[in-house]
Structures
1.
Amino acid sequence: MSGYSKSKWVCEVLLGQVREHKLASITIVRPGLIGAHSVTGECNVRDWLSWMVRTAQTLKLATTIASDALKSVFLHLVPVNYVAQTIAILSLSHEVPIKIVMM
């Protein structure tokens, strides 16, 4: 188990204890890869995926990558506006004391 996985587990255990003592309502959101806004196209130009795409374009590798070995590889991105809307809705919902949402 990686350090990230261990720290995530510890955090969930601690949040579970908070829930058990009824100190707070807890929502954990794990959006995965966050992509550009679905309408405006705005995105984080400093994240690793943006750098990788820009580098592939600069090195003229984008068409080679797309047409060769990675034909069956897909990146599943959730638009940033969907992530924001989901977090807003979940933060206002008090139906379940603890929620873990995987997007």
Note: The chain has a mean pLDDT of 79.
2.
Amino acid sequence: QALENTQVLQHLNTHLPTATMASKLSSMPFLTDKNNPVGYCVQGAIEFGMDSRRLIQRCTKPDAKEFKKIAVACAIGFCIMGFIGYTVKLVFIPINNIIVGGQ
């Protein structure tokens, strides 16, 4: 547990723009203790921030071909879902009239 905390702090020292945040965290040990509810939330937020930063750095903007492929796939999905919804509505209108007793 303590080794994991020191690794997180070392990671913070090397990857955050300011090392003052890491020094502030190390001066308050309850913020780095995952057994403490506050520390659990703080460590969760720090890990989320590091994971989010890593994700954003790895993301790339799609080129035109990839964008077109994604757009076509989404359009086909919208059409399929619309057709299913229309078919269900079309089938249930007469069934509803039979159940309610159309006059």
Note: Residues 64-100 form the longest helix (37 residues).
3.
Amino acid sequence: STVQINLLTPEQVYAAYHNDSDLHSQTQPVGPTLYFEDHSHMPRYYDMISGSLYSDYLLAMWLNSKSADKDPVSFTKFLITHEIENVDGIIENVDGIGTRGFLDQPSMWYLIGTQDLQDLATAMTVIPLFHQNQEFAMIKDNHRGLLLGGQRRPLGMPEKVLGMYVLLADDSMAGYHTSDTWEPLLYPYQQTGANLLFFTFINPESMEVPVSFKKLAATRGKNTEGAVPADTRIIFAVGGEAYSEHPNPWDWLTTRAKAEAMAVKVAHWRADYGIDGIDLDIEAGAGSNKIAGPNMVHFIRKLKSFHPDLIVSQPTYGSPQIQAEIDVINASWNPDGTSNGVADSIGIMLYVGTQALTWVNQFAEGISQGGLIKVNVPKTDILVGCKGSASSGTISELAHASVSQDLLGLMVWFCSVKKGPVYNRWDDCSSSKDSMGGYVDAMKYFQDQTR
């Protein structure tokens, strides 16, 4: 039978956490563990090896139950009555994820959706519940029950992508360093002419999320001036050309242990900022190190062990020549085009007219090409490059080719935002009214084709 839970107030939960910690059982997760919190800051854990669910919510359930006796014995009986086992309370640190301090930090929420759990575990029944305008899912199998908070689940890759690299941070540009505070705002054409935004760039030396990223990500769905629309995907882009030249190498790609430790850190980004994915733009320099590619694959696999549905995109030159990019692509698909669950898409970094289209078969028919790509990447996973200031005619041609050739869509380099940094005006989407209109028209064309 399903356990119906009466939610406690945050104050009750906080009191239960601080005053009754001796009631927690001592069972510890044995493998990589997802950490998250619901709307009232209740800690949650999902053990990805054993498939066990852990939660202090069980203590909250008990404290709010009709049981007159509030002691460890009655708590144990409560768990047995509700067929709940393998329960744990607060864990000081699980694989680097989750500490007691998170209880006092409202921003540290991981809002998990029902599909996430269906991807991670099988044989579970999901029963929708509602409370204070928040949607929840009651997960119940033969042994465990848990209420999981949910505000939004990752959107996943659109059927047809119009993705723009929006420049928000660069540690070489005064006023736009990782730590600099300013208020980025999208232009109207970016709100209606794109369904995916690559926030550009995170410095791979520090791997700290820029303040500007945090500010713009926090606007999603708010309907305010310059805000990110609710259904627009947010991808954090790491690296880029300059950051591949220095630092070189990227320290966290020098060993498997460092790569996997970085994945644990990056796993927080979806919880902290609500992102839908990351873009791994490792180019000449750092990407030419032989150890970078294999360790990047270790990084992605570890990250995917926490978030299987997090989008991972891999940019590549049209003519494959960067070893790390080649390694990731060859690890991500099989010769028959089936996925290995590593990268989800590639983007051809050629931004002259429609020339990116001429390189599609280098990847889609990698085996027959006899080159460095040893797999066939499905065309539905391939983005073609488009210069930001491309003419509306070029944009339209690329959009129509994406539909006729069943490609994933367009990857646009680059677009400045209001008050934001600009590399150069001749490549910038925002410098051309014709380009801006072209992207809005292309997005409408994609929407019409996928209805």
Note: Residues 1-64, 70-76, 78-153 have pLDDT under 50 and may be disordered.
